[in-house]
Amino acid sequence: MTGRLQDKVALIIGSARGIGKGIAQRFAEEGARLILADSEAEAGQATADELGAAFIRTDISQMADAEAAVALALNRQGRLDIVVQNAGIYPWQLIENTSPDDWDRVMAVNLRGTFNATLAALPPMKAQGYGRMLYTSSITGPRVSSPGHGHYSASKAGINGFIRSAALEFSGYGITVNGVEPGNILTEAIELHRGAAYIKNMEDSIPLGRLGSPRDVANAFLFLASDDASYITGTTIVVDGGQLLPEGKDFRLLPP
Ligand SMILES: NC(=O)c1ccc[n+]([C@@H]2O[C@H](COP(=O)([O-])OP(=O)(O)OC[C@H]3O[C@@H](n4cnc5c(N)ncnc54)[C@H](O)[C@@H]3O)[C@@H](O)[C@H]2O)c1
Question: Which of 45, 49, 106, 160 has the most CB atoms at less than 10 Å from its CB?
Answer without folding.
Answer: 106
